[in-house]
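Lecture notes, unit on protein representations.

Consider one protein chain, 307 amino acids long.
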Amino acid sequence: MKKLLPYIAIIIAMLIWAVSGIAIKEALLSFSSLTLLVMRFTLAIVVMLLIGLCCRHSALLRLQKLDKKDIPLFLLAGFFQPCLYYLLETYTYDALLSPTIAETLLSTAPLLAPLWAWVFLRERVTRNNILGIIISTLGMVLLVMVGGQSFQIGNPWGILTAFLSVSTAVLYSVMLRRIPTKYSSLTIVFYVQLCGLLLFYPLRLIREGFVSPLPMDICLWTPQLWQSLGCMTYLALFATVTAFILFCYSVRQIGVTRGNVFNNIRPLFTALIMFFAFGEHLPMGKWIGMLLIILGLFISQREKKEK
C-alpha cells in the first residue's frame, strides 16, 4: 500500500488541477490575471502557515526553518513555478487563437521531462518510460484534438512561450528532486510559493498600481463577485495548497520522468467532468485517446530490469 501512495497522491493532484481550469475561467470574470494570482497565493501562504503551526509533529505537514545553503534552490523553484510558468501560460492562451492548440502544447511536459531529468539529475530513463510517454501523449493529442473546431494558430510566439512554459514546469520538478529530503512537503511548497508571491506583488504594482481588488463597501459586492471569490478560494486551498503538496510528495518519491507522465491525465479528467457533469458529447476518437493515455501510464510506470 505504501508504494501506491505516491500514485494516489499525484492522481488526486491532477484531478484538482483539471477542475481548476473551470474555476480560473469563473474567477477571471471579476479579477485580472495578476490580481487573481496575488490573491490566490496570498491566501494559500496564510493557510499553509496555519497548517504548519498546527501540525508541528507531522512528518508531511510540519513547517521547518531553511538552511541558508538551500535558499537558492527554493528561489529557483519559485521562479520557475509559480512565477515564470503562470506568466508564460497566460501569454500562451492570449497569443494562440485556439484554446485546443494551447492546451495541447501546454500538456507536453512528459516529452521534455526525461531530457531535463537526465541532464540535471542523471535520472535513469527506461524504454518503458519512453514508450509509455509516446503512447500517452498520442492519446492526449487525440483527446484534445478530436471534435475541435478552431485550429488557427494566431501569434506564432505563443508556440514558443508554450514550450518555455512547459520547460519551467519540468525544471520546477527537477528543483523538487534537488531539495534535500530532510524538508517536509509543506515546507517545500510553502517557501516555493512564498518566493513566487514575492515576485508577483511588484509585477501587479507595476501593471495595476495600488488598486484594491475588492470594493470597500461590502454592499457593492455582486453575486458574480461572490462566485469569483469562491472560485479563488478553491484555487488557493486545493489547486495551490493541496495539489502542490501532493505533487511535491509524489515527484520526490517516483521521480521527475514518471511523475510528469501524469500530466496527460488532466485533459482526460476534464473530458470526463464535462461528460458526466455537463452532458458534453464525446466522439469515439476521444474515448480511444483516453484508453491510450491510461495504457501509456501503465507502461511508463512499469519497472522492468534492462541490461
